[in-house]
Amino acid sequence: xxxxxxxxxxxxxxxxxxxxxxAGIIKSADGSGFFKIGKTExxxxxxxxxxxxxxxxxxxxxxxxxxxYNMMPFSGCGSRIRPGGNRxxxxxxxxxxxxxxxxxxxxxxxxxxxxxxxxxPQTDAGxxxxxxxxxxxxxxxAGITMTDLVCSVAVGRVDDxxxxxxxxxxxxxxxxxxxxxxxxxxxxxxxxxxxxMDGEIPKDMFMDALKxxxxxxxxxxxxxxxxxxxxYGEKK
Length: 236
Fold this sequence. Notes:
The chain is α+β, with helices and mostly antiparallel strands. It is 27% helix and 30% strand.
């Protein structure tokens, strides 16, 4: 078998699903961001820096970052999502934190915490990547000093093809091997802050997938920058 045509009608294997991004959508938050790719929507809200309680958790040399991932009960493809935390939400919360930390310098905020809450009204694959991208917009909107934005997307393998931004049908493809590789990167430095993989892929296809990821992340960065400029009224 060979995977010749993408299920959702995209014309090429490096084409991303339609995207949308906004900044400052939650007025009560210190910063917020929205990112949609295909049918996956992520809303991120940032609160802080603020004093961390209880005090024994404080670090006198730096502030800390906490990320909170939550899928709404009606957001999944298929069965209803059980509300509340679980092993998956804890794992993805940690993944988000580790992907975002490299661009933040929280030493100016000792004994403080920055909380990032990411909610998903609907999902169709790529949820952690959409969340990281939305959270990066929200952190910038909050005015926290960042050395770069963080862009995130899933690349991988569907049968004999390397593809960017796999959707749910591609992840569930049964007629050949599939590998899903979520990545996050710093677009200015071209370095990765997240690299995971589920599935098997030959080395040459893996390297091709990473190169494709570097290329398409530039499109995501352009949308992030536009969202921030649109809020603050900066002309192109």
